[in-house]
Each structure stands twice: as C-alpha cells, then as structure tokens.
Specification:
This protein is α/β, with parallel strands linked by helices. It contains ten helices and nine strands. Strands 3-2-1-4-5-6-9 form a seven-stranded parallel sheet, sandwiched between helices. Strands 7-8 form a two-stranded parallel sheet. Strand 5, helix 5 and strand 6 form a beta-alpha-beta unit.
C-alpha cells in the first residue's frame, strides 16, 4: 500500500483497476487532475499503472473485493491519503464464467456471485460514510449489457449484473436523502482481458477460441468491439451528468426499452444470433 497524501484534489476509488475498464478509468481521471485509489487482486498490474500515471496521482493497494473487512480498511486508508474526501466510488471488479448453466460448477458460479455482486455490496457499505461527507459524490458500479435481457451461456454472470443494476436503482432513490448520487455503467462488448480469461465450461462447438471471437466480432451495431477508454469517458460523463444508467454504446439501451414490452421478441432475436441455442440434446435412451 502506498502512503503518500495528496488531498484535497477530487478523488476516485476504483476496484479492478489493474486491467481493462478500471485501468483506463484510472488513467483518464489521473490525466484530468484527480487523485486515484487504484486497487485490484493483481498487485503487478497496479505497479505498472503507477509507473505509467505517476506516483503523485495514483495510490495503489492490493484488494480482494470479496473481503469486506479488507475493503473497509483499504478504502479508509485511501480516503485519509485523499485528504478526507471520496468523490467517486467505482465498483468495477468482475469475473466471468461461460457455458450452459448446468456445466458451470457450483463453486465457479458462486465465485462470480461473490466477486460481481457481493463485491459491489461490500463497496456500497464501505463507501457510504465517506460519500455522505463529500459534496456531489457518486457511487458508480459496472453492470453489463447482459443486464438488459439475461444472456444465455453466461446466465449467472448476467444475474449478478441484474443485481448490480437493481441495487443501483434502489440506492439512487434511497441515497438522495444523503445527497449521494448512484449510477451504473452497462457496457456491450469491450476489448479487455475478461474476454480471454472467461473459461468456457461446456467445451462444445460453441466454444470459439480468442482469434475466432475477435475475427467474428460484429464490425457495427451495439455489440461491436469497443475500447475500454470509451467506458472510462462514460464514467467521467456520469460524474458530470445525472443519469442512473449509462449504456456503452448508447444503442444497448434500446434492448432495455424493447424488452419492456416485447421480451419474447428479444429472446427470439438472441436465439437467432446464437444458433447452438436451438439444438436440442439427443433423446436419452
Ligand atoms: P478485466 O479482466 O480486464 O479487468 C477486471 C479486473 O478485475 C482485473 O484486473 C482483475 O484482476 C480484477 N478482479 C477480479 N476479481 C477481483 C476481486 N475479487 N477483487 C478485486 N479485483 C478483482 O475486465 P474488464 O472488462 O475491464 O472488466 C471490468 C468490469 O466490466 C467487470 O465487472 C466486467 O464484468 C464488466 N464488463 C465487461 C465487459 C467486457 O466486454 N469487457 C462488458 C460488460 C461488463
């Protein structure tokens, strides 16, 4: 844990900051004069981030978001270093598991729940006391496009992202009485390590390798591959705006609108886009 004190610049605490969306957000806010609390289970990734962005701008600490006590202690230490303010809490750390629901081992599914939802819950409990005492503060969490219509083959992952979205909506109302804003960001397909590190548990023909996934990523439309810097810009816009849900790209929001009155139509579009969904198992003898 680095110990330098850099207040009273505006400050943002980011989980999952060593890679992808969290890393891009840390760099963008640092470039714009903010003081960054960058945390992750990967200490090595944080070291290179600090070298790239400057130790005066980036405070780092190893942190596993599933550990509530560790999160509270780490956030408290960061807020002290930041001169007592927490302008943005960014609950971003996440992991994936893919495959048919029944092929994903129960333990692996629980790890997704622990990281993607319990981690956000831990962040909310830890951050509220500091957010309450910082004017215009915001808690923003990374949900997903899979929290528009629940996505097959990442069922539990999608369910955790719905949970994040639900918590966001509820707290965006509750925390008005504390003067704390609450929002989430719902990215489509972002070009980060998670696309490569998410194991396919079904091992079937639908398990595309990385090269194939990239080659087949749509070149246009809501699920085109987008650089993580675009999500970072959206987090910046969220701090300076007043929406609850921030879709990246914006067209992802249309799925939510369509799903509200035609959920079966959305499901049938998803099934057409994923032909393996339509194959039934051979009859059991
Ligand atoms: P990434 O794999 O590049 O970054 C995720 C970071 O979270 C990694 O540095 C990892 O070490 C860290 N992490 C994992 N478990 C942790 C834990 N228990 N405690 C602390 N840190 C932990 O992936 P990416 O894409 O940047 O992911 C960030 C968030 O964006 C995740 O919540 C992910 O579910 C979400 N997301 C990503 C999309 C994509 O297409 N890349 C689309 C929609 C949402």
């Amino acid at each position: 844990m680095t110990t330098q004190s850099q207040g009273p610049r505006p400050s943002i605490f980011i989980t999952g900051a060593a890679s992808g969306i969290g890393r891009a957000t840390a760099k963008l806010f640092a470039n714009r004069g903010w003081f960054i609390g960058a945390t992750d289970v990967s200490a090595a990734g944080l070291d290179t981030l600090r070298q790239e962005s400057g130790a005066d701008n980036i405070w780092t600490s190893a942190l596993d978001v599933t550990d509530k006590n560790q999160l509270e202690t780490t956030l408290g230490a960061f807020v002290s270093a930041a001169g007592g303010r927490l302008d943005v809490m960014f609950n971003n750390a996440g992991i994936g598991e893919s495959g048919w629901f029944e092929d994903v081992p129960y333990g692996a599914a629980l790890r997704v729940v622990q990281t993607n939802f319990i981690g956000v819950l831990n962040g909310a409990y830890a951050a509220l006391p500091f957010l309450k005492t910082t004017p215009k503060s915001l808690m923003i969490s990374t949900s997903s496009s899979s929290a528009t219509y629940g996505m097959p083959r990442i069922a539990v992952y999608a369910a955790t992202k719905f949970a994040v979205k639900g918590l966001t909506e509820a707290l965006s109302a509750e925390w008005m009485r504390h003067g704390v804003r609450v929002a989430d960001v719902l990215p489509g397909l972002i070009d980060t390590a998670i696309l490569r590190s998410t194991p396919n548990r079904s091992g079937d023909a639908a398990a595309r390798n990385d090269a194939e996934l990239y080659a087949n990523a749509p070149k246009s439309g809501p699920f085109r591959l987008i650089p993580p810097e675009q999500v970072a810009e959206t987090v910046w816009a969220a701090y300076h705006g007043d929406q609850i849900h921030w879709y990246v790209p914006k067209e992802i929001g249309r799925i939510d609108q369509l799903k509200a009155f035609a959920p079966k139509m959305v499901r049938s579009r998803i099934m057409k886009a994923m032909p393996q969904l339509q194959k039934s198992d051979p009859p059991k003898s």
